[in-house]
Design brief:
Elements (H helix, E strand, L loop, with lengths): L22 H7 L7 H21 L3 H17 L6 H8 L2 H11 L41 E10 L10 E5 L20 E5 L5 E7 L4 E2 L5 H8 L5 E2 L3 E6 L6 E7 L18 E2 L2 E2 L7 E4 L2 E3 L16
Helix pairs in contact: 1-2, 4-6
Bound molecules: benzoic acid (BEZ) and fe (iii) ion (FE).
GO molecular function: catechol 1,2-dioxygenase activity; ferric iron binding
InterPro entries: Catechol_dOase_N, Intradiol_dOase_C, Intradiol_dOase_core, Intradiol_RC_Dioxygenase
Cofactor: Fe(3+)
């Protein structure tokens, strides 16, 4: 049965009539008149799906209480530097799916902008602006391999370069840790924002990225163990690219030969984000990475570039 806002409310799904057929509808209809349309729609659907899930798996009281304790443990271990809730979502593919939903429907079919993928918990709003040609390596790590990364940012429809685009970059060090996680790294190590020049170009030095494990000492680790999965992310460089009048893109770039590229534990890899690092002739770098970025124009009525909140 379909209720207001298109939310089906009160079916017993595959379990037929074994359970009270009116219960879910009753819970949804108790939402008060002051609840705005969008939260009413989202919460009605959430209640319906949760109730259907409980009926479908015939959730036991012990399983329900295990789930409650698990949710509590996510909150208890979270801090300003550790967003365990987001990590649980990542392990379950939720952040990747939300990203897909947010980005698919906004595009014209003839545009092919750079694919987005998840933000993850390590973006910082405080990364410093650096000059084109600078390095983001503040604290060299013994086995870090320096890469010269460069490319052009263009309009997805016209191919014209986009000057003054902000390319915000962050990556883990060669020990697999971000500055947030590692007391031996200075603040903003391996982070930087660059503005493209009049030809739409950006260029700078970074490290060839390193695969790393999600922390396994908390709820995400327990969940991965229960799911019999490894905790590894393939090596990657994060980018958040924004320009006036264009839809921002948040993405990650992966070495094509990374052993975890096909089993990323947070499901963020897309084929067009797999890249080849090449040997460099630049005396300051061992490797060369060319990556051109393409942005879709914002259409009338589309929201301004999304500013991420951090916890
Ligand atoms: C990351 O891309 O940095 C990341 C994403 C999800 C979970 C942990 C890390
Ligand atoms: Fe990362």
């Amino acid at each position: 049965m379909t209720g207001t806002n298109g939310v089906s409310n009160g079916t017993n799904g595959a379990t037929g009539d074994r359970f009270d057929p009116d219960f879910t509808r009753h819970v949804i209809e108790n939402i008060g008149p002051a609840t705005p349309d969008r939260p009413r729609f989202v919460l009605s659907s959430l209640i319906k799906h949760l109730h259907d899930f409980i009926r479908e798996v015939e959730l036991t009281p012990e399983e329900w209480m295990t789930g409650v304790q698990f949710i509590n443990s996510i909150g208890q271990i979270s801090t300003a530097k550790r967003n365990e809730g987001q990590r649980i979502c990542d392990v379950l593919g939720i952040e990747s799916l939300v990203d897909e939903v947010a980005n698919k429907f906004m595009l014209d079919s003839d545009e092919n902008p750079t694919s987005s993928t998840i933000l993850g918990p390590f973006w910082s709003p405080h990364a410093p602006f650096r000059e084109l040609g600078d390095t983001i390596v503040q604290d060299p790590y013994p086995d870090g391999k320096v890469a010269y990364m460069h490319g052009v940012v263009t309009d997805a429809k016209t191919g014209e370069p986009i000057p003054n685009t902000i390319v915000d970059i962050w990556q883990a060090s060669s020990n697999g840790q971000y500055d947030f996680q590692d007391d031996n790294q200075s603040v903003n190590n391996l982070r930087g924002k660059f503005r493209t020049n009049e030809k739409g170009e950006y260029y700078y030095y970074c490290y060839h990225p390193t695969a790393y494990s999600l922390p396994t000492d908390g709820p995400a680790g327990k969940l991965l163990k229960l799911l019999d999965r490894h905790p590894m992310r393939p090596a990657h460089i994060h980018l958040m690219v924004s320009a006036d009048g264009y839809k921002s893109v948040t993405t990650q770039l992966f070495p094509r030969d990374d052993p975890y590229a096909s089993t990323d534990t947070v499901f963020a890899v897309k084929d067009d984000l797999l890249l080849d690092f090449k040997p460099s002739t630049d005396p300051k770098a061992q490797l060369d990475l060319e990556y051109n970025i393409s942005l879709a124009r914002l259409k009338a009525g589309q929201p301004a570039p999304f500013l991420h909140t951090v916890f």
